[in-house]
Amino acid sequence: MTSLSAREDALSPPAGSPPLPHPVDALASPMQNAARPGVTPLPSTIAEVLWRGDALGRTTATTWPSGFDALDAELPGGGWPAQQITEVLQTQFSLAEWRLVGPALRRVVQGGTAVVMVGPPKRPHLPGLRHLGLEERHLVWIQAHAPSERLWCTEQLIKSNAAGAVMAWMPQAAPEQLRRLQVLAQSFEGPIFLFRPLEARHDPSPAPLRLQVSVEMDWALQVQILKRKGPALESPLRLPSIPGGLDAVLTPRVMQPSQWRRRAAPIAAPVQALASVTSDGVSARGASSPAATVATLRSSRPDPDALFLERHDVVGRPDPVASSTDAVR
Length: 329
Hints:
The protein is an alpha/beta fold. It has 11 helices and 12 strands. It has an 8-stranded mixed sheet with strand order 5-4-6-7-3-8-9-10, with helices on both faces. Strands 1-2 form a two-stranded antiparallel ribbon. Helix 7 (about 145-160) runs parallel beside helix 8. The longest helix has 14 residues, at about 145-160.
């Protein structure tokens, strides 16, 4: 058996060679690990696929421009990605789905493929979709009500790669079910949009891209990117989006309701004292009945209808009770 001293002699450096550094001294300090001049740059093949956490991620999959330059600048790859699921959260369905993804679907169907809808909450409005470049032959509507039916149909569409794009409404979905869809989506050649309620924002999700969308004034969409491959986006995006066909009939004033001027509310007159108290009790000076007091207070309130100009133009249609002059204007 080899003794301990023999082992130490075998590990010691030969005679005449410099001593080995201490293990603690051999460790480089953080300052020494910093970038130093003369460092060999990475090969181009590696630098192209290397992603740094402070920059937007790049993807090798196909992307479709969203139709909004401001949104494309914040999406990895510059558009809606393929080979992954994109999760869109909103407070109410059927308000912003087509306005957000419709411009990109126009480019998808140009290749001869169809857009498949799984369980939309409302019947698609074909006249409005035609303004987006989507005809009836480009759409497939699958009625699925139960959560299991929605998941099964979406899974089969992704697995078979039988559509140009998939739009699935999923009010209820477990994280493991979404993870299965994400695994299958890696072989799908088109965009996959999963529309979910806002309550699912704090639930774990395997979707590489998650967005929250809401409808704002002046026919705009507010989009907040909750998850992406890149740094966090602190401020939401405001995207101008007028529903199809309405831009040709809406007046400039109705297209910007936030610019409407408010009428100054009338200033209420001060209410006089109803009675004066003396040492003998309540005098008759300024005395008034309760009914007259209520009438005085009601007359001093401003009329709510007088605070805004032509409220019947909010939806772009004249009010039947309004005058013809107001309706034309």
